[in-house]
Amino acid sequence: MPKAVVIEKYCKSCSLCVDICPKKIMAISDQTNEKGYFVATCIDQDKCIGCALCATVCPDVAIDVYK
Amino acid sequence: MEEKVLLKGNEIIGEAAIRSGCKLFFGYPITPSTEVIEYLSANLPSQGGTVLQAEDEIGAINMCYGAACTGNRVMTASSSPGISLKQEGLSFSAAVELPMVVVNVNRCGPGLGGLGPAQSDYFQSVKGGGHGDYRLIVLAPSKAQELYDYTMEAFDLADQYRNPVMVLTDGYLGQTMEPVILKERPESPEFDRTWVVDGCEGREKRILASYSLTNEIGEANNRYWEAKYKAIQEVEQRWESFHAEDAEYLLVSYGTTGRICKSTVLNARKKGVKLGLIRPITLWPFPVKAFEPHLEKVKGIVTVELNTGQMIEDVKLAVECKVPVHLYHRQGGMLPTETEILDYVEEMIAKDTREVQA
Amino acid sequence: MKKVFSRTKGLTEVPFTFCPGCTHGTIMRLIAEVLEELDIIENTIGVSPVGCAGFSQDFFSCDFVGAAHGRAQAVGTGIKRALPHRTVFTYQGDGDIAAIGTQHAIHVAARGEKITSIMVNNAIYGMTGGQMAPTTLTDMKTSTSPFGRDPVTMGFPMDFPKVIAGIPGAAYVASVSVDSPKNIQKTKNAIRKAFKVQQAGLGFSLVSVLSTCPTNWGLTPVDSLQWLRDNMMPVYELGELKMTEEVAQL
């Protein structure tokens, strides 16, 4: 099952992953990381196709993708 | 093998660099230093070294910075306006603690000035000419043989202290042909190279940079450099005393004028004037210790300089105002004769005597 | 299940210090991936500039030297001349390479210096807080062109990679963008080629990358990407601007 995993400490809540995701399953959560950013998260892993577009555009290398 | 040759001062520096294991030279032509890059262009590549004429002095000093990061021996040479352009790079080199040799063949200024000999870059050389709080070790040769010897020494001092070292000469020394003995270089000691950046194969990565936005770290860094500078001041003060032991009056002069002053001292002695000379060899660290034995018995000091009076400030600090310090100076490329200097000394003595009598 | 995307070994674990959404991070990641893929992490010395990328040395896994503002390519030249068999790259902003350090950029190209330079063009000075850059667009407002860049008094924006492409020693010059996944891939290809040009000793290679500065542009990261497409792409020609015959055969 493909999945996108956000490494919370790197996330800066920029939303580029949210914008690019073709399945619209990335979202900014209400959880903050140690720097105080609301971290991005995959809200429906079942729909993830492992395309890695989120990781490709993430400027903080904060997303690992499994397929 | 030792050999005696006749070379121009600037060429002697080039030869000394080659024999010191200088592997890379980056420079930009400027009179009266140009023979350094010309000599090395002709002679360093055949010894396996690299000479690159940079786009400008800023490029040259920063190429030295890069090459010095790899642990190779590097040198650049220029004259006053060019040295001004190098100041930013020198500050960075001091901050990253890079060994390198920088030759300044001082011409007269300010501005574009002229090509004649001057000592007008004294402040710039010894007070840290660029931004921030740093020091260069500054060596001041006064004749051909010293151009050779001190240049060699400069490379060792640079490596020993991981600090840029300046050889401060002038247009007269640089352009004069004199015989010099090309002595075999003593074996260089092994220097620590565990800081160099040359690709992290088989070791942790290394960084050579001076960027710090944390004030606490900034202060710690400055204290570290300060301690290094203090250690250098303690052990590396060098000078030549010439007839100073019994002197009632002392000349203080370095480089070309230091050499002229020796004749002045000899002429004075013939006339019964007890004149001596302290010739600073390290301008930084300034040889404060040279003055200690003389403070009680010397009646007056004259600094002889080719500027508006710069080293005189360090002499006054060295003698803590216990002795009157006077200035005899020429400027704009002019050199004093030994007689002119003696005339001034005699005038000063006469004036002192009149004041004492009054 | 296998990992199809993870942090490259070319990067350390240190988080980037850039503002949210700033594409500096994307460009650095691509360089680091290329270093890993070409197996040259241990062979490479990077040179960092002054400005937002001034902390590059902390992010990459290779040896690094920090240069004064604009001097990265002169420093890189010194390193490369001392260590001709090592890979040397500089990472510089537009102000660094196309204003304060232009003389070095011109002359590393003229000498065909065997180093690779990555230029990041975001049309503004980021670290100092949004001042006019040589790449600031006509009429674009910055803190030092508060009424918009007027070419009559402030000069025109300069398409710097084209300047370098016109110099004989430049073997490979590419202008790319990181606004989309497709362009990010093109950027990586260009960076890979630039490093291969250096490895083959073919001359100087430059990759200029259009990048965003959401903070100083006053836009969201997503809107910044669109702004880049709408405003920068018409001015800055994209593509492989220069490729010598030897490079084409690589």
TrEMBL record, chain A:
Protein name listed in UniProt: 2-oxoglutarate ferredoxin oxidoreductase subunit delta
One of the Pfam families matching this protein, by short name: Fer4_7
Entry-linked PANTHER family: FERREDOXIN SUBUNIT OF PYRUVATE:FLAVODOXIN OXIDOREDUCTASE-RELATED (PTHR43122), IRON-SULFUR-BINDING PROTEIN (PTHR43122:SF1)
UniProt organism field: Anoxynatronum buryatiense
Domain 4Fe-4S ferredoxin-type intervals: 2-31, 39-67
Sample GO molecular function, one term: metal ion binding
Keywords on record: Iron, Iron-sulfur, Metal-binding
Lineage of the species this protein comes from: Bacteria, Bacillati, Bacillota, Clostridia, Eubacteriales
Transmembrane segments: none
From TrEMBL, chain B:
Any one GO MF annotation of this record: oxidoreductase activity
Signal peptide: none
UniProt domain Pyruvate flavodoxin/ferredoxin oxidoreductase pyrimidine binding: residue ranges: 15-201
Domain of life: Bacteria
Coiled-coil intervals: none
Keywords linked to the UniProt accession: Oxidoreductase
Record keyword Oxidoreductase present: yes
NCBIfam families: PRK07119.1
Protein name: 2-oxoglutarate ferredoxin oxidoreductase subunit alpha
UniProtKB/TrEMBL annotation, chain C:
Pfam families: TPP_enzyme_C
An example molecular function term from Gene Ontology annotations: thiamine pyrophosphate binding
Domain (Thiamine pyrophosphate enzyme TPP-binding): residue spans on this chain: 59-200
Keywords: Oxidoreductase
GO BP: cellular respiration
InterPro entries from the UniProt entry: 2-oxoacid:Fd_oxidoreductase (IPR051457), THDP-binding (IPR029061), TPP_enzyme_TPP-bd (IPR011766)
Listed Gene3D superfamilies: 3.40.50.970
Entry protein name: 2-oxoglutarate ferredoxin oxidoreductase subunit beta
